[in-house]
Amino acid sequence: MFVKKLLGTVATLGVGGLVGVVVERKRRNEVNAAGVDRPNQIMRYGFPTNSNLKVRSNYVLSYDRRNRNPNWVFEHLNIDIIKKTKDSIERDQLAFTEDSSIPGWFRSTNRDFAKSGFDRGHMAAAANHNAQATWKADTFYLSNIVPQHPHMNQHAWNNLEKYVRSLCHHNDNVYVCTGPLYLPRKEADGRMFVTYQVIGDNHVAVPTHLFKVILTEKKGRYTLRSYMMPNHYIDPSIPLEQFKCSLENIERAAGFFVFPQLKAEIH
Amino acid sequence: MFVKKLLGTVATLGVGGLVGVVVERKRRNEVNAAGVDRPNQIMRYGFPTNSNLKVRSNYVLSYDRRNRNPNWVFEHLNIDIIKKTKDSIERDQLAFTEDSSIPGWFRSTNRDFAKSGFDRGHMAAAANHNAQATWKADTFYLSNIVPQHPHMNQHAWNNLEKYVRSLCHHNDNVYVCTGPLYLPRKEADGRMFVTYQVIGDNHVAVPTHLFKVILTEKKGRYTLRSYMMPNHYIDPSIPLEQFKCSLENIERAAGFFVFPQLKAEIH
């Protein structure tokens, strides 16, 4: 292993000081790439909530046991994480699997989705985790999935996911928080109601909307972008820009702050 | 204070052994009554969830920031807790107050309830906390409140609360978990939908149902009773027994186990 080799060399030569610092930096990067410190790198700007956390090889989520969906899914991306390598795997070699770390009563299953008319929509997108087979395979846990309108999933939402990956080409780091929303609607009498379908024996909630909050970092400069999309057919002529919204709108509806440590850290 | 006096006596007399044990037992009871160990006594059989916990003088709750309601509220009751004392206070001397420990975006306010047509329904009932003024006052935090149908609140639900207090007269301990539910309903086309109103600027969710799970203990023998009631007008001729339901129904709908440590502890 590269880290060990380098450290070994330093130890043998007995070199300290500047070289030691360089080695230390390299070692940290290696550890990150190897996944040991990965969860803290992904959650660099804080946890939106601390309930039912699932730490996967390349993303972190909080699970909503009442709706059988994630509350939020967090990814840290860059060009090395999204690009295909010799360790990559094709999507069609992977199958959706139940998350056995969730008690059966609160867990969605493939049967819940069958004949429901909804796609099993990834929150951490499979194609964001190309570099390693395990990373991509982990996105197929059903705890990372919500019932998603097929057209929306395969077109408008897919475009948003592609846009996120395009940001990796000209930024150093891209932090992405993705999740479902259950928004109220005004009825004819002026009263507001939340209405959403539930599917399957486990009553998996069909979100009314999905959101994505994207924080990009380039040489210490940060940019924040927030999107919200309805979970139904979206006319392909509507440009992505139209789904931009304020972070506040998402946070009020979701019931959490997306990057709780952001302000304290970067200002 | 009684504890200090007793301990003082022991110290002065230098008495150990058996008397020391008796004093230690008394001291523990005193501490419980004084509230120092109160949260752990209330949560004796485990926490249903660990998100947004609020520990009050005589109850514990988990707050649902998305719906601006509690997830669950836990009480430990007995005859000494519910009975009026010289420290008691009347209900009409108390006012509902916002819970300032919850960020403004996720907090319900009195304004949200005004002209909504819904009562501010206590989950930990005010009349369960008679013995001390602070105990009863603490039940008036809006984090302990959900929008409740006035007739249901003042009749069927009130009867259930009275029944809980009646259980204190012939049991040693009564553990009560209370909370809101958002249940799906089958539409004409066979699909299932969750629909609930939200009120006020903060979109406080109006639960479709409320539940109460009651664990009584008498000389080491335990009895569990579970109730679920729709949050609308309930015909007064319907007996309380009709609202009994399985604990499983409540737990599946709520998304948590009510007494996670119960089986391990009492079997």
TrEMBL record, chains A, B:
Residue positions binding Mg(2+): 153
Pfam families to which the protein is assigned, alphabetical: Endonuclease_NS
Keywords recorded for this protein, A-Z: Endonuclease, Hydrolase, Magnesium, Metal-binding, Nuclease
Domain DNA/RNA non-specific endonuclease/pyrophosphatase/phosphodiesterase positions: 55-265
UniProt EC number: 3.1.30.-
Domain ENPP1-3/EXOG-like endonuclease/phosphodiesterase intervals: 56-265
Top enzyme category: hydrolase
Highest taxon listed in the record's lineage: Eukaryota
InterPro entries per UniProt: DNA/RNA_endonuclease_AS (IPR018524), DNA/RNA_non-sp_Endonuclease_sf (IPR044929), Endo_G_ENPP1-like_dom (IPR001604), ENPP1-3/EXOG-like_nuc-like (IPR020821), His-Me_finger_sf (IPR044925), Non-specific_endonuclease (IPR040255)
Listed GO CC annotations: mitochondrial inner membrane; nucleus
GO process terms (BP): apoptotic DNA fragmentation
UniProt GO molecular function: metal ion binding; nucleic acid binding; RNA endonuclease activity; single-stranded DNA endodeoxyribonuclease activity
Cofactor (UniProt): Mg(2+)
Active site, renumbered: 122 (proton acceptor)
Family in the record: Belongs to the DNA/RNA non-specific endonuclease family.
PANTHER family recorded: ENDONUCLEASE G, MITOCHONDRIAL, ENDONUCLEASE RELATED
Protein name: Endonuclease
Organism (species): Ciona intestinalis (Transparent sea squirt)
Taxonomy of the source species: Eukaryota, Metazoa, Chordata, Tunicata, Ascidiacea
